[in-house]
Amino acid sequence: MSALPEPLHTALSLAASSLPVLPLRRGKVPFGNCRACAGNACGGRPNMKTPGPCRCPGVCHAWAAATTEPTVITSSPWGAAWRLAVCVGYHPGGGGLTVVDLDSTDAIAWARIALPATRTVPTTRGEHWIYRGAMRSVNAVRPGVDIKSTMAYARYLGPGTGTMADLPDAVRALAAKEPPTVRPAPFAATPTGAGGGECRHRTPAYLERGIAMAEQHITEASSAVHATVYRTFLAVLSTHGRCGCLTDAHVARLFTAAQAKGESARHCTDAWTNARTALGM
């Protein structure tokens, strides 16, 4: 008996561990629907446990075709697809998993700060962080970050390293439709230290110019946004933080600029608190 093609061998192994699989063609995309299913002419998907959304035995409807049934995976209709397949895809949500797709070094740096450690798989441009638990899939939840779970597929790139963690609320929150409300950390306006700080704000324009420059610095950040936000908060506090001139309205402007770049309200609060701590405030 001849050896199984590599993608098919991998697919059967994954299916045996209850992970629904499907073949991916060149370009790492699913195979197109057959003529009977083109344009969803077959009427749609009755449930996600069948080979596809209809009774078609072919590899139709992308992620919905993913299956754990070895008889389907090795069936004649699927054979041509496996011969042309360049890799194996899987349906994370169908296997009770969520993949946080980090597509850049900045996205990885953010995840290491913002998300609990879990199983990690290297990709061409970044990493897949895999959690136990399913949720809805959302693209571009922040720069370089996609969530792949239900009604989506991911490319299988190996078992990865690390212990798989349960899906955290921090990942679920990324899929929220509405941006989080800006809630600045409480700011003590009273001077700190012996005798307090000397007010340098000869005119209101001095403080306004400082806040505007800080907003611009955050807005123009093209990489390392989290670090830029922290450094900017640190600079604002070191200049304006001890004289009592900063108000919640000023802080809210900084938080708004940071959240427009993808930072969460929690990360803004943490960065603000850490900056104050670093300055002994």
Explain briefly what this protein structure is:
The chain has 281 residues and is an alpha+beta fold.
Describe the structure.
With about 280 residues, this protein is an alpha+beta fold. Helices cover about 35% and strands about 15% of the residues. The protein has nine helices and ten strands. The protein has helices at about 5-15, 70-75, 75-85, 105-115, 170-175, 205-220, 225-240, 250-260, 265-280; strands at about 20-25, 30, 85-90, 95-100, 120, 125-130, 140, 145-150, 155, 165. The strands form two sheets. Strands 4, 5, 6, 7, 8 and 10 form a six-stranded mixed sheet that branches. It has a four-stranded antiparallel sheet with strand order 2-1-3-9. Strand 7 (about 140) and strand 8 (about 145-150) form a beta hairpin. The longest helix has 16 residues, at about 205-220. Mean pLDDT is about 80; it is low at about 45-50 and about 180-195.
Blueprint of the fold:
Layout: H1 6-16, E1 21-25, E2 29-30, H2 70-73, H3 76-84, E3 87-90, E4 97-102, H4 105-114, E5 119-122, E6 127-132, E7 138-142, E8 145-148, E9 154-155, E10 165-166, H5 169-174, H6 204-219, H7 225-240, H8 248-260, H9 265-278
Strands, count: 10
How would you classify the quaternary structure?
A: single chain
Mean model confidence by pLDDT:
81
Q: Output the structural class.
A: alpha+beta
Order of helices and strands: HEEHHEEHEEEEEEHHHHH
Radius of gyration: 25 Å
User: Strand fraction band?
Assistant: 5-15%
Poorly predicted runs are: 46-52, 178-197
Largest sheet: 6 strands, mixed
Please bin the fraction of helical residues: 25-40%
